[in-house]
Write a structure and sequence with these properties.
The complex is a heterodimer of chains A (327) and B (256). Chain A has 327 residues and is mostly helical. Helix content of chain A is 74%, strand content 1%. Chain B starts with a strand and ends in a 6-residue tail after the last helix. The chains are: A mainly alpha (327), B alpha/beta (256).
Chain lengths: 327, 256
């Protein structure tokens, strides 16, 4: 019988991690209107970067920074190709990119070994990404013995980074920069005729989104302790999309709320499975029905999501608005 | 002095010659009109001047420098701002945000600037908000400043496009049918406001318009296009009596 408190902490941790991931998609889709259907790949890149970094004895903080940077840089490079396309093509291109990245990670080690055996005849034991067997990831936090204390330390790590990410995205979205991102979403051509170099903003949005996704991936990997390419299949991308759509597209708090909702539904299914004993069917299979149903209900009654997008709040605009409503 | 010179400018879409070797000049600080039947190539000409559509051949000169082949944002940087026939506003954003988006060289618009120069752009934005509210006041839109753009009426959307363009301090404003779908009274007042703006800022206007009588009472010079070619250029008073213009609009009355 698992410890319910540990179970609850685990769920809380996942809500924190996917809150960061949902915020990152909110920058890309919510504000800039870029349909990034390759989110899972950027979490994967962050996760593997962190895993390899700590494996080679780097400090966890450096591993986190590396994850953010590598994921961000790969995001910008992917966008160089993908952003040439219109919105619908962008979605499918970046989805294909994500699948290619996942298959490369899965087959890289085997292919290199085969190549060395074929060219030199020597049997090698190269092991970079672990292939289908995945990779064990050392935790960033080490408090041996006390599981609860360990979990509390983990939770404070993820929630302080979530708070920092939220503050960062909020500052950015409530600024003239965020205003341009939203203008690109509304009408890219009009933005260009008003002198905005829209492709730079789109690249930056994908870069920022990917960097934050890398952070989420790294945090997730070190907590779960094990990663494999199979953990980053497209349904992870779709789960993050559901968080953003449920919570409210273009609303940062909404993204966090969506993450909490989707993760809670998953947790409820796991809870039923773990604590209620024998059931005629596997509750984990029903969780997607619940997630799907909640999407339909929310979209039917609140098409803009639970929390709607709010006007841009910069200090000068706020001062003018208050003067206006009073006068 | 001509601020805008167009030389032998052509554009084809498949077999259709949308703009066929057009030559025209727009003099500084004038209101220059461009009229012509539907499909005569007026908007395509504007699209080429503003860089939205690449030209096939020909040259465009602005203030003595060639601007054909430049990207839309580069043409904006030279001082040409345009409006669209069907307004292209940022619909979900507030009217005031729409205005602020047209500003040139705003330090808060870069990623680094937005994060690290918060005090600086806040001070800049205070001045810009004042300027935007002044322009909205001239255009009679101050009551809508904090509404989302999609809540405006059709005529107000047209006015907001003009107002947004003015935020960029343009030297040349290309207006594509500023009074389309607007009632005649508001149409007159839009042109009255265009006159006011020219007087106040010395802006040059190049205007596509179907409301010929309204345009003629304000324009200094008029060009007429038909089937991609320029068929008239001169004072508005001479347009009505020009036989080629009559033919383009009414058909050949002597043919039977």
């Amino acid at each position: 019988m698992p410890d319910p408190l540990i179970f609850a902490m685990h769920i809380a941790y996942r809500i924190g991690v996917y809150g960061i991931a949902a915020l990152s998609l909110n920058i890309e889709y919510g504000y800039t209107g870029l349909s990034n259907f390759g989110k899972a790949a950027f979490l994967m890149i962050g996760a593997y970067t962190a895993a390899i970094a700590v494996e080679n004895g780097l400090h966890p903080a450096i591993a986190l920074l590396l994850s953010i940077m590598v994921s961000g840089v790969i995001g910008v490079s992917a966008s160089l190709f993908a952003l040439k396309f219109r919105e619908d093509y962008l979605a499918i291109t970046i989805l294909a990119f994500a699948e290619i990245a996942r298959l490369i990670l899965r087959n890289f080690d085997d292919s290199i070994r085969a190549l060395i055996r074929f060219t030199t005849g020597v049997e090698s034991y190269i092991n970079v990404f672990g292939g289908v067997h995945g990779k064990v990831v050392r935790s960033f936090v080490s408090i041996p013995g006390d599981y609860r204390l360990y979990n509390i330390a983990q939770l404070s790590l993820v929630y302080s980074l979530l708070a920092a990410s939220y503050l960062f995205v909020k500052l950015l979205s409530d600024s003239p920069y965020g205003r341009i991102l939203r203008a690109i979403r509304e009408d890219e051509l009009a933005s260009q005729t008003l002198g905005k170099k829209t492709w730079i903003y789109k690249m930056q949005a994908i870069g920022l989104g990917s960097a934050l996704a890398g952070l989420a991936g790294a945090l997730s990997a070190q907590f779960e302790g094990y990663i494999s390419p199979e953990s980053f299949q497209p349904h992870l991308t779709f789960a993050i999309w559901m968080m953003v759509i449920l919570g409210g597209v273009g609303n940062n708090l909404g993204s966090l709320l969506g993450a909490a909702l989707v993760e809670s539904i998953e947790a409820a299914a796991l809870f039923v499975k773990s604590f209620l004993g024998y059931l005629p069917l596997d509750p984990v299979n029903i969780q997607w029905i619940f997630v799907g149903a909640s999407i339909i209900i929310v979209v039917a009654f609140k098409p803009k999501g639970i929390l709607e997008e709010r006007p841009i709040k910069t200090p000068a605009v706020e001062v003018a608005r208050h003067g206006y409503t009073r006068g | 002095m001509a601020i805008l010179e167009v030389r032998r400018l052509s554009k084809s879409f498949g077999g259709l010659k949308a703009v066929d070797s057009v030559d025209l000049d727009v003099e500084e600080e004038t209101i220059t009109g461009l009229i012509g039947p539907n499909g005569s190539g007026k908007t395509t000409l504007f699209n080429m001047i503003s860089g939205v559509v690449p030209r096939d051949s020909g040259e465009i000169w602005f203030e003595g420098k060639r601007i054909d082949g430049l990207k839309p944002f580069e043409i904006y940087e030279r001082g040409i701002v345009r409006s669209f026939q069907i307004p292209r506003l940022f619909w979900k954003l507030m009217v005031l945000d729409n205005m602020l988006l047209a500003v040139r060289g705003f330090s808060g618009e870069s990623f680094i600037g937005a994060i690290f120069r918060r005090w600086r752009w806040t001070a800049e934005e205070k001045r810009l908000v004042d300027k935007a509210l002044d322009i909205l006041n001239i255009l009679g839109l101050s009551d809508s400043a904090f509404k989302p753009a999609y809540q405006l009426s059709g005529g107000q959307m047209k006015l907001l496009e003009i107002g947004r363009a003015l935020m960029a301090d343009p030297k040349l404003l290309l207006l594509d049918e500023p009074t389309a779908g607007v009632n005649p009274k508001l149409a007159y007042s839009i042109f009255g406001k265009i006159e006011d703006i020219r007087r106040a800022y010395g802006t040059t206007f190049f205007i596509i318009e179907h409301r010929v009588e309204t345009l003629f009472s304000h324009a200094d010079w008029v060009y007429v296009m038909s089937n991609g070619s320029l068929i008239y250029g001169g004072k508005p008073s001479g347009v009505i009596s020009d036989s080629r213009v009559q033919k383009a609009y009414l058909g050949d009355i002597h043919a039977t």
